[in-house]
Design brief:
- This protein has 381 residues and is α/β, with parallel strands linked by helices.
- The chain has two domains: 129 residues, Alpha-Beta Complex (Aspartate Aminotransferase, domain 1), CATH 3.90.1150.10; 244 residues, Type I PLP-dependent aspartate aminotransferase-like (Major domain) (Aspartate Aminotransferase, domain 2, 3-Layer(aba) Sandwich).
- It is built from 13 helices and twelve strands.
- Strand 5, helix 6 and strand 6 form a beta-alpha-beta unit.
- Helix 2 runs parallel beside helix 8.
């Protein structure tokens, strides 16, 4: 194989050259602490706030609703633990296919899982039956990082609107909020907060061709949550510490690019993914796609190869120059099968014969064709 084929964009994306160019001055020339009061530092503060305003514009949000943090893991922790710590008497609902950065903080509070059917998409009627008078937060990720399944966030937000009205009528003053982890969504969907109807939304720079350890938590005005990191009161008191100015500038640039071309990239990768799926089904009769393409984002294909060991297959692909994943990169060191694949009903053996292929801006049809050819060779053993 002439060049490596990277098919793990759901784990990390290469930084866009335009993003790197935007960031570079803030590593050296404009290194100042934006909280300082002299002119050079105030210039850096102005640039930081311009980055915040750029992200706010793309989300259709207010400047004060954008909280810079260090990636989606921190954003998810702040959303979950921040709300639940503010309302300790409340309860949390989360889908059974959430990222571990939602699952882990949820374990510290009273929580209930929203079970999902075989295709991994939350059923809104099932969710509604789980809501009670103490439910204060519902967390459902917009696009699943292992299956690519697209969740009905807008429909869930309309349900919450109805629940709020009923609570107000019945004298229940406990709020109910909707959080979505949108880390995998920014390259392919419009993330206007008002259209989605969310109260909290996590965005990750490393998934949208921006810098690692950069991210945003959108917090709708009026949403109550406690900070996890306290100190100097930066980020409207919700995330203390000297701001990562270069990261914020890079994130704003990357998000601006991603949102500007999301429709075009969605269409392009949908076509490539569908060709990929068709080639797999024609060339490898043993392969099974673990999710519905109709209800999935265009960049992820999770495929089961019955009788194959996914780790062995992944290593053989790697040695041949194709980089894929057995599941979420965040849990790659675990020997346990993916909780996402288990949640949609796959057995341990089925989960451990599944690979995740995720595509991005540099993926071309010839990459897919070469990958399928290689898989066909490896499957013959």
């Amino acid at each position: 194989m002439k060049k490596p084929i990277y098919l793990d964009y759901a784990a990390a994306t290469p930084m866009d050259p335009e993003v790197l160019t935007a960031m570079e001055p803030y590593f050296s020339k404009y290194f100042y602490n934006p909280s300082a009061t002299y002119l050079a530092a105030r210039k850096v503060r102005t640039d930081l706030e311009a980055a915040r305003a750029k992200i706010a514009a793309n989300l259709g949000a207010k400047h004060s609703e954008i909280i810079f943090i260090a990636g989606a893991t921190e954003a998810n922790n702040l959303a979950v633990a921040g709300v639940m710590s503010k309302f300790p008497e409340g309860e949390l609902l989360l889908s059974a296919v959430e990222h571990e950065s939602v699952m882990a903080p949820a374990r510290s509070f009273k929580n209930h899982k929203i079970l999902v059917p075989k295709q991994g998409v939350v059923d809104v009627q099932t969710l509604e039956k789980l809501v009670n008078d103490k439910t204060v937060l519902i967390s459902v990720m917009m696009v699943n990082n292992e299956l690519g399944t697209l969740q009905p966030i807008r429909q869930i937000s309309l349900l919450i609107k109805k629940i709020r009205a009923n609570r107000s009528k019945n004298g229940n003053s406990l709020p109910i909020y909707l959080h979505t982890d949108a880390a995998q969504a920014g390259n392919f969907y419009d993330l206007k907060a008002s259209r989605l109807g969310v109260d909290l939304m996590s965005i990750n720079g490393s998934k949208i061709y921006g810098p690692k350890q950069s991210g945003v938590l959108y917090v709708r005005a009026g949403t109550s949550l406690m900070p996890l990191i306290v100190g100097g009161g930066q980020e409207f008191g919700l995330r203390s510490g000297t701001e990562n100015v270069a990261g914020a500038i890079g994130l704003a640039t990357a998000f601006d690019i991603a949102q500007a071309q999301h429709a075009k990239e969605n269409k392009r990768l949908t076509e490539i993914r569908d060709v990929f799926a068709n080639l797999l089904q024609k060339r490898l009769l043993i392969s099974v796609i673990n999710h519905s393409l109709k209800h999935s984002a265009p960049h992820i294909l999770n495929v089961r190869f019955p009788g194959q060991d996914n780790e062995r297959l992944m290593m053989e692909l790697d040695e041949a120059g194709v980089q894929v994943a057995v599941g979420s990169a965040c849990s790659a060191s675990s020997d346990e099968p993916s909780h996402v694949l288990s949640a949609i009903g796959l057995s341990r053996a089925e989960a451990q014969s599944s690979l995740r292929f995720s595509m991005g801006r540099q993926t071309r049809l010839e990459d897919i064709s070469q990958t399928v050819d290689l898989l066909a060779q490896l499957a013959k053993g």
